[in-house]
Amino acid sequence: MNSRRELAEFHASVRSCCCLAFLIIGLTSFAWPAQNPKALWTALSAGQLDGRIQRQLEDLASKNHASIRFLHVRGRTGASGQKGLVFELDEHQVADLFLQRLKEVTAKSTVLVTPALANEGYLLQISYSPSLVPQVVRLQAMSAAGLHNGLLRVPDILLTAPSNLKELIPRPQAILRQNDVQVIIADYPSFAIRGVVEGFYGTPWTYAERIDMLRFESQHGMNVYYYGPKDDPYHRRLWRESYPPGEMKQLGALAKAAKENFVDFSFAISPGLSMVYSSEADFRALASKLKSVFALGMSSFALFLDDVPQDLIHPQDKTRFKTLSQAHIYLINELYTYLKSLSQDNRLMVCPTTYTNEWGNRDYIKDLGAGVNPEIPLDWTGPQVGSDEITVAQAEEWGSYLRRQPLIWDNFPGNDGRPWLLVLDPVRGRAAGLPTAVQGLFSNPMYQAHASFLPLQTVADYLWNPAAYEPEISQRHAIVTQYGKDGPALLQPLLAIYGDDNGKKADFGAIFAERKSPVDIVSIETQISQLSSVVAALRRQPAFETLASEISPIPGMLREQFNRVLADPSFEHLPDGKIQWNGEKDVLEAPRVPTKPILDGDFAKWQSGHIYDLNQAAQIQDGDKLWKGPAQFSARVALGWDEDTIYVGVDVTDPELYQPFWGRGVQNGDTFRLIFDTEQPQAIRHGRPDAAYDLYLSPGNFDNVKPSIYCEQDFLPPRSHPHDYDEEVKTAWKKTLKGFSGDIAIPVSFFTGHAFSLSQEIALSFGAQKTFVSKEPVGDDVPQIVFTSKTDSLFRVDPENPVTFQKLRLVDEPNQR
């Protein structure tokens, strides 16, 4: 095939359409009543149009106060005239020829067009009248999706002079202006997979919000919706159980609505909290669940293995598999084979247990890359769980582990666990060249679905053409698109509070996360009042009714937390009106030991010193309704030090000791817990702390389970030097009449390696926990009583924020209390 000749003919067809257009315009004008004041549009197609495209055109005409008629014509057609707008729609382009045409017109594009991208691409030729009014729009594509994406351009084309089409947002891949009245737009997305995931923790979106999100995606060229809300019980905790009939009906309706909007609705399931990977019964339950969803008309599925135990926990799995990665490879491949047996059109995406550079097991991810069917995309959130920046080099490195390009699960603009936070900024920090290194990108939005539309529209712009993406321009365009020409001015007060306004946005995080720096309560109170006023003002604007209703609870959340902070005795009021965490209020003290204690587990040797008691309801961090008093569960703790060791003596009242686990998994039984930070001084640090340790120390069960130590570091950065905690931390345990007692010795090598010294301060807290045997599988909600040494109930100890740890001071003799 002579591609140059074909392209020349292709261009010539635009110029040879006047006669047929005149005839058609005349016919349609004659057919429409003369007294009808509406403009008349005509849509020409060689065959029956996809119903979705016809409805899209009808909606487009209605919004432009026009009526439209549809005519079927044979062969190549063209039309132009002065009396109405004519659309020529040609969906069934020959794939190879169409791809070649796109390549030639977009030769200078930074993203090379592939068959997959061309399938959603289009060629759009606009013929203008001498007065530069669009007369003929000829749209060619390989698929209905391509026609849909091309028609998304029409509203802006109708309002934009030919010379300004280069300013369209998102920027097209190429614009060829042939003369004053002829323009060709050749366009296609830069990423094959573009969309959102409802994958956050907390209250899931409503059915209506999901429908709105699907429509939003359709309007902005996104093509996938992953359904996986963590707190949908049938997605995660009750994954074995079928959805109730009403919810199944809604899922089916969502799948149908997604198809109507050119969006691929992908149903995700997350069985990893309790699944026995080697169990045929569990696999059958999983297969049955997905088959029931498949029957609703879905062909896209996702297996979420994120935020589940990072090692094998079931005896059957430990017998069959050597590692978690082996179990997951088996499960993923078996599930993929099963889905393909239902239909060859079925697809599967997987979110692995290690999904970020920030923490996790590199061997696990490399094993998955080598063992999982290469047709299955594997997710990655970037260098962090919420990544500020994702570069091509980072994506290529992760892709080398996966042995395939990663699929980015982008946690922008998510606000998991922070419903008071609105992320309204445009997306930034994603490299323009990412399409060459990844399979696609989808965003995990906020709890507030409609507030998410603003940042998500900038994501959509980036995904369509990242090389031409400009954050500020995209954000302004999003505001005008969604809220009208007055939108930027009306929304500015909200953006001033939450937006990235030269670092002046409100820092509400100061009242939700413990810090050592002063808190400007006057400023925060002012910002809360301003936010209340902004929400009230937006409520008076019809265009903002939905957004204002959605964000209206936030000022109340902030006010409630602000009042809790003001009433918290752990804060001291400073002369300048600010408040600050009182670092001396909850200090622990460890006296110097005169001689090295014998580690025999006998608590008697600590009795004469100061004892910290865990026996009050106020000290319970979790499970207060399970606690029946100190005789059921409580603890006494003694602390000591010498130059090379921190000592902890423990006496736990626990008549019904439950600890069937050894090593990983002991946190699901009865343990003593030590949390400390080896980096000083205590301060907020960017990223996750690599010097923090969260140790669960198990006494075993004094029968067939021996003592062991597990460090909860799966969600902390990999250590530069791996630790063997059972060898490095010395322990001795003893069964007592009321429970158990023990000695713990932490060597100075965990810290600076230098000798401990008088008056040295260490960030450290401790606790004890009791687990109750549950009929429910091991998962997120293991019934436990958890005691903590930190008395403040507002800011509990958080292993990912060492600022929340107490201060342990090394003394000669403890102060009298």
Observed structural traits:
disordered N terminus; alpha/beta
Question: What does this protein structure show overall?
Answer:
Helix content is 30%, strand content 21%. It is an alpha/beta fold and 817 residues long. The strands form five sheets. The protein has an eight-stranded parallel sheet. Strands 18, 20, 23, 24, 25, 28, 29 and 30 form an eight-stranded mixed sheet that branches. The chain is elongated, with a radius of gyration of 32 Å. The protein starts with a helix and ends in a 6-residue tail after the last strand. Residues 1-36 have low confidence and may be disordered.
Rounded radius of gyration (Å): 32 Å
The helix/strand class is alpha/beta
Beta percentage is 15-25%
The N- and C-terminal alpha carbons lie at a distance of 92 Å
Largest sheet: 8 strands, parallel
Question: Helical stretch count?
Answer: 21
Roughly what is the average pLDDT, rounded to an integer? 90
- Total number of strands: 30
Helix fraction by DSSP (H/I, runs of at least 4): 25-40%
- Shape by Cα distribution: elongated
Strand order of the largest sheet: 12-11-10-9-8-15-14-13
Q: Which residue ranges are poorly predicted, with pLDDT under 50 across at least 5 consecutive positions?
A: 1-36
